[in-house]
Amino acid sequence: MSVALTPEQRVLLTHLESHVPNDLPERATFLLRLERYLPELLEGFTIIYPQPGALEKLLETMVKNHRERSAYLRRLDEARLLTPDWFQRPDTIAYVAYTERFAGNLNGVLERLPYLKALEVKYLHLMPFLKPRPAPHDGGYAVMDYRAVREDLGTIADLERLTGALHGHGISLCCDLVLNHVAQEHDWAVRARAGDAKYQRYFYMYPDRLEPDAFERTLPEVFPDLAPGNFTWDESSQRWVWTTFNTWQWDVNWTNPEVFLEFLDIILWLANRGVDIFRLDAIAFIWKQLGTNCQNLPEVHSITQALRAAVRIVCPAVVFKAEAIVAPGDLIHYLGRGTHHGKVSDTAYHNSLMVQIWSSFASRDTRLIAHALKNFPPKPSSTAWNTYLRCHDDIGWAIDDNDAAAVGLGGEAHRRFLSDYYSGDFPGTHARGLVFQENKRTGDRRICGSGASLAGLEVALENGDARGVHLSVERLLLGHALVLGYGGIPLLYMGDELALLNDYRYTDEPEHAADNRWVHRPAMPWDLAHDALEGRAPEHTQRMFDGVRQLIEARNRTPHLHAETDTTILELGNNQVFAYARLHPLGALVGVYNFSETAQWIKADALLEHGIVQPIDAITDRRLEVQDGGIWLEPYARLWVRNAV
Ligand code: GLC
Q1: 610 phi, psi to nearest 5 deg
Q2: Which atom of ligand 1 is nearest to the CA of 178?
């Protein structure tokens, strides 16, 4: 073998090998992978957990789960090792849905497979389905048992049946892995509350306010309305407990190697049930350090690297998706910078792209999006962004002050404008959204609302404004074209393909009433979906549905969109138009988007510079006419321009 191990690592490898039982199935493969990923594993793990014996326990967890991996999943491991870019390919389309709202339960999802197939979905993210505490549970983000399914959604056997069936159709399953906190009803927390010292070390618990107060000095509040502060008094243990999110979501203590081993065991156990992708929920928060905001600390990446290396050894079919809704400079580290390059998460949410799309819709000006994305650090070529227009969460206006200043805007003023615009408070706005968790201290107002309501469809339909309806759908289709054409894995949020509006009935459900994110988490209207499939939905829905399907089909035949290739922002000299190039060995693909409701003209120079002499739009396969050295763009035009030959 040619893996470059230092002499010390080689000694260690021999020692570890002696702990791998001779009867382990596919032992030789396991040992090869151990050797290959040992440096990455050590680099991540031993920095954080130098405790004697920790590494042997880690190996034990890996061996145990490798033994239990089924023959069919081992075959999937081999298949994906042969196609390591399986999740980066242009045919990867992800669909994100709440199981109960999409299909009732896990078995119901099987019945909805034809719909997913019609949308050519290759990756299904079912929102948290592991057993949560009794409501409220933050949409399942307060897990009580990681080895059980939420009772109304089914059982672990149903999950295994589902992953097997999905794999049969070439669809992989993404599962939320909530690793910053557990429900206060989780067994570890129950024991900690009862005074068990071992389990108290699984959490951050303090007898008085001394340390909590010291930390609070530099900690932001995630849910200032729902759960102010970051610590909660627990009566039974007489301790202050760290609770970044809600009072019943207890932050776990990742400085404790036992916590690492527990979570690794959970990941591998779920991977053995057929889960392909783990969404590392709130990963930015898992390490705390006094005097910081306790987000994005370097230790987060060491821990992720160690988890990732262990997963590569035991179940290489599995990938990680980082949910870090943080500033661009911090975000890139989740895909790996410096020594972590390509060794941490394989994919991460591109929150900036999402925010900038909504910002450009409101301002009809593309200078900020172009500037912000231009300065985005390049990502490792083995990784992919998760691009999206809407998700299950609110939108926080992550506009960087320096980016705003560079294009002559005040960061704070622009964020205020966006909150006004999308909450419907700005004169002439087309949007209808709700303010989420207003922070009186910082002035921060996040926004909830479905893509369609934010894009103006709700207001236009209400006013019987045909042009407004038309423009809203155009806006949405532009947004989707950008999400599908930017490069990365597009995440289609359930119902967006049907332009579903806000659903205000969440206030009737006691469990949801206090959290207005439920306004954009509606139930799937299956009658409408079937009508759309058959081409007889109301005009605006049909146009949306057909438009999304057209984009998906176009993406499938456009190899330039492989995530390996990075995106280069272009300046076309028109402030209403956003453009970029994807410089693929097959030739360039130039994405062009008119963010205004008026026709715009762009010079064809940038196309020529990229070797596009006979421009054709890859979405419609239509030839583009160059007139007087330029191209006219319709209102909200979106083009994926490539050379005709
Ligand atoms: C993530 C989820 C969000 C949840 C939070 C706490 O940000 O997307 O819905 O509230 O984590 O688990």
Answers
A1: -100, 20
A2: 12
Residue 251 beta carbon below 6 angstroms from any ligand 1 atom: no
User: How many whole angstroms from 111 Cα to the centroid of ligand 1?
Assistant: 28
**Active-site residue numbers?**
281, 323
Q: Is the CB of 281 under 6 A from ligand 1?
A: yes
Q: Is the CB of 639 under 6 A from ligand 1?
A: no
d(CA 180, CA 222): 13
Helices and strands counted in the chain (H then E):
24, 25
- State CA 231 to chain mean position distance: 27
Rounded CA separation 282/128 (Å):
13
Query: Between the CA atoms of 94, 351, 308 and 346, what dihedral angle is there, to the nearest 10 degrees?
Result: 50
pTM higher than the cut 0.90: yes
In 3D space, the residue among 160, 206, 204, 197 whose CA is nearest the CA of residue 182 turns out to be: 204
How far from chain centre, in Å, is Cα 406?
Answer: 28
Helix or strand holding residue 206 (H, E): strand 205-206
Coil, strand or helix at 277: strand
- Look up residue 338 and give its amino acid: G
Q: What's the rounded Cα separation, in Å, for the pair 312 and 34?
A: 9
**Nearest-CA residue for atom 9 of ligand 1:** 393
89-141 pLDDT, tens digit each: 999 999 999 999 999 999 999 999 999 999 999 999 999 999 999 999 999 99
- Residue nearest atom 11 of ligand 1, based on CA coordinates: 282
Helices (H), 147-256: 156-168, 187-193, 197-200, 210-216
Residue bearing tokens 């299950």: 392
pLDDT digits (tens, 9 = 90+) for 580-619: 999 999 999 999 999 999 999 999 999 999 999 999 999 9
Atom nearest to 138 CA in ligand 1 = 10
The β-bridge relationship of strands 94-97 and 489-493 is parallel
State the pLDDT at residue 1: 47
Atom of ligand 1 nearest to the CA of 246: 6
